[in-house]
Design brief:
The chain is mostly helical. It is built from 10 helices and 4 strands. The chain has a two-stranded antiparallel ribbon with strand order 1-2. The chain binds zinc ion.
Length: about 350
Amino acid sequence: MKRRVLGGQPVAEKKKKQQQEEKKEEEKMLLKTPQKLLKTGHYIELGSYQHWPVLIPQRIRLYTYEQIPLFLKENPFITGGYRAHLPSKLCLRSIFMLTNETVNIWSHLLGFLLFFSLGVNDVSSVLPASGANREDYVIYVIGLFCFQVCMLCSVGYHLFSCHRSETTCRRWLSLDYAGISVGILGCYVPGIFYAFYCNAFWRQVYLLTVLSLILAVFCTQVHPHYLSNEWRGIRTTIFCCVAGISVIPACHWVWLNGGLATDVVQLFLPRVLVMYLIAGAAFLFYVTKVPERYFPGQLNYLGASHQVWHILVVVMFYWWHQTAVHIMHFRHSRSCPSSSS
Ligand SMILES: [Zn+2]
């Protein structure tokens, strides 16, 4: 009996010691692990007290529409695939992941590469081959530079819209809007320059008007309410006005050239109309949120209206650039009439 009691005490003590050591180790692990993870960015703060394990670079957590912060809620028909609460580094890394922004990012990143290579091609071969002068070079460089800026601003917004700071997201959003204005300017500059190639007065009037309009839009964007949801309608109206006002120089160009029956109008009016058609279609997709409106949750990753809008914007810019090449060849092939053209 004595032996058992004496022999049993050390065993019990050993067990207690082991349990205490295990507890201590567990506590140490609990204390160390979150800090380590916090440092490596595997945990983030949501609100004032919660820590969510979301930021494993290769497997960034995706959220549903209900889970994302209010300022990211724009399209309820896209029900999932959202990135959110990310620091800049992981926003950048998410470029190689499949999320509901992947097509938006890559469509304009490839668009940027397209317009960059078009610029290189124009300056190195197209313009020298067509006997371009200094003005042609300036106009082409401005046009393509504007398209590239528009593409990059859009890429930046869609890449960093998941940033954990609302202020950063808002800044990128205003940059995206500024990019659209620059893109519109890139359409106007070559359009007006070649349409009024032989009429320096109207060319200057329209170029100055467009520049003032774009400047006015930039000034409006500084307004604190500009990015608010209440101003969404006003934002759309401003862009519609800036783009739609192009009807005035277009009609004026037809009238100055002697009406619809003349050669130059017959040659280029269909191209202008196709441009309006693409722009109109792009705008309709953008505003109506079709087709995801009819298939909520099914087009989260592919086929959503914003993706169609992005692709149509690239098509529209490319179409306008090719039109500028055609009209430049036309202008160089014949001299201006003595009065006007
Ligand atoms: Zn976009």
